[in-house]
Amino acid sequence: MSRSRSRSSKRWLREHFSDPHVKRSREQGYRSRASCKLWEIQRRDRMIRPGMTIVDLGAAPGGWSQVATECSGPNGKVIAVDLLPMMPIPGVEFIQGDFSDQAVLDEVLGRLAGAGADLVISDMAPSMSGVKGIDQPRAMALAELAPDLAARVLAPGGGLLVKVFQGAGCEEFRASLKAEFATVKTRKPEASRARSNEMYLLASDFRGQNRTSSD
Predict the structure, then answer these.
(1) What is the CATH number of the domain that holds 84?
(2) Catalytic positions, please?
(3) pLDDT tens readout for residues 47-63
(4) Rounded (10°) angle between helices 102-112 and 132-153
(5) Is the dihedral of CA 3, 193, 145, 179 positive or negative?
(6) Is residue 184 part of a domain?
(7) Do residues 56 and 65 touch, judged by C-beta distance below 8 A?
(8) What distance separates the 2 farthest-apart alpha carbons in the chain?
(9) What's 210's DSSP letter?
């Protein structure tokens, strides 16, 4: 490891362990500080309601799924999907695999049992190289998978919460959401680090018809 990278790693570790959101998430039993971001958006927008069916994309290690199942309550349903394994969470149905694969999509549809989801949430992000010209296209390509899945599983009137990174392709992505949803709002939680260009788009009132895997 280079000296500059070593200094950067040590700085990140100091910042991470002194981060109040890291401390809060641990104290409250959440698996990641990302849970604080979802709670902030939830307190503002109340997009998760009791009894909702929610699909969590790129769910591991499970911080967002924990929040989703708490907010949707005992009559809700949370289906979490990730390439990586995830330790079980009470009330969460986990599917390990790539949700862009037809077999995994079919399993998600099977878990929905013919009913559309009320909300799709995605906090996915690629591994960052530090080179913007490489990272931004990767991030946008990953973000674009979420509305594609949402169009296949959402019930009319459903919603989507997806992480994006400000930069090339972001405005075009927002415009594509506006074509499918009645409203699209931008959210930047305080728990999102100030230097990060990440933000969240909350799209509501899905206009389309639920598309099946055979379409």
Answers:
(1) 3.40.50.150
(2) 163
(3) 999 999 999 999 999 99
(4) 40
(5) negative
(6) yes
(7) yes
(8) 55
(9) P
pLDDT at 17 over 60: no
Q: Is beta strand 154-165 parallel, antiparallel or unpaired with respect to 198-206?
A: antiparallel
DSSP 127: P
Could you give the C-alpha distances from 108 to 72, 90, 140, 171, 191, in angstroms and in order? 18, 18, 23, 29, 30
Tokens of 158: 């459903």
DSSP 139-159: HHHHHHHHHHHHHHHEEEEEE
**110 assigned to some structural domain:** yes
What is the rounded distance in angstroms from the CA atom of residue 213 to the CA atom of residue 215? Answer: 6
Tens-place pLDDT, residues 148-159: 999 999 999 999
Residue 210 pLDDT > 60? no
Task: Copy the structure tokens of residue 82.
Answer: 């990730």
Residue 123 tokens read as 């906090």
At 114-164, the pLDDT tens digits run 899 999 999 998 777 778 778 888 989 999 999 999 999 999 999 999 999
- The structural domain count of the chain equals 1
- For residues 84 and 67, what is the distance between their CA atoms, to the nearest angstrom? 19
Domain that holds residue 192: 32-206
What does the angle CA 171 – CA 200 – CA 52 come to, to the nearest 5 degrees? 125
